[in-house]
Amino acid sequence: MTPASTATRSSTVYAAGAVVWKLVDGKVRILLVHRTQHKDVSLPKGKVDPGETLPHTAVREIAEETGFDVVLGAPLGTVEYLLPNGRDKVVHYWSAEVDPGAAERHSYEANGEILALEWVALSKAAKRLTYEHDADVVERFAAQVEAGHARTFALVVLRHGKAMPHEQWDGPDHTRPLLHLGLEQSASVAGGIAAFGPEVLVTSPAARCVATIAPTAEATGVPVVEARSISQDAYSGDSERVRRQVAKRVGRGKTTVMCSHGPVIPQIIAAAADLAGSAISSELRRSAALSTGEYTIMHFARETEPPRLVAVETHSPAID
């Protein structure tokens, strides 16, 4: 399980992309791009735009380069290499399945960036790629396929944005609003969360959580469900109420966002890991220690019973 960090300002160039794949007659084929100016064959990817988080970059660049609107699956790690100008480049990758029928009907016209698209059998893709680091990513994806982990759904655990401090608010705790920074954080992460195609949005009824998840609801068009069981007001050392809520969401196998509070989030992640039969590792503990506006994504295999936890990643708002 490999966490993927959000890009930060530095001399390093950050980019994101995916192994776009389809299943045809029981065999996996992946999409390669023939780049016009570079005269090479690679995986679809592109550089982070200002204000973007990495998952948002991945889906935007794939749409621009290939015309496919994708939903990201599990992460495939990173590749790092030196650019001709001497700067380091780090590219984050995910898997992304597309419907074979839609792929068959898909039309594409060559442009100044991409000369052609090519669907290649997974077993032959590494030899078609120009760069060894791209072949490494394909090998990681092949390992997911071999293990039966290529198809996944996710639990996205989001901590509310920066809120008005307790000492500066006279009303009940659950009415504390987001500060301007919190509103910026919430807007910043919405595109990245939307990249994973959430089908269910659940939030604590606290005003700061409702406001945090609102931009994601707008980006996805998914209605928000309030659940007091994951609120700070309902928090207790006995996490049974939280566990029941998590079991309900994970059991349905739909990608779900749960927006909650610092004390509750470790209970959410522990419950999800336990349902998948995973021990609480140091990585999971780190993924539960979210700062305001951050989110952790737990990826579960669709084709195992119970759903196996196959990857965990954490992202931050793209704000200085």
Structural write-up:
The protein is an alpha/beta fold and 320 residues long. Helices cover 32% and strands 27% of the residues. The chain contains nine helices and 13 strands. It has helices at 54-66, 100-105, 122-128, 132-147, 180-194, 207-220, 240-251, 265-275, 282-288, and strands spanning 13-24, 27-35, 40-42, 45-47, 75-82, 88-97, 114-121, 152-159, 200-203, 224-226, 256-260, 295-301, 309-315. The strands form two sheets. Strands 1, 2, 3, 4, 5, 6 and 7 form a seven-stranded mixed beta sheet that branches. A six-stranded mixed beta sheet has the order 10-9-11-8-12-13, sandwiched between helices. A hairpin with a 2-residue loop joins strand 1 (13-24) and strand 2 (27-35). The two termini are 27 Å apart.
What does the secondary structure layout of this molecule look like, with pairings?
Layout: E1 13-24, E2 27-35, E3 40-42, E4 45-47, H1 54-66, E5 75-82, E6 88-97, H2 100-105, E7 114-121, H3 122-128, H4 132-147, E8 152-159, H5 180-194, E9 200-203, H6 207-220, E10 224-226, H7 240-251, E11 256-260, H8 265-275, H9 282-288, E12 295-301, E13 309-315
Parallel strand pairs: 1-6, 8-11, 9-10, 9-11
Antiparallel strand pairs: 1-2, 1-4, 2-3, 2-7, 5-6, 8-12, 12-13
Helix pairs in contact: 1-5, 3-4, 5-6, 7-8, 8-9
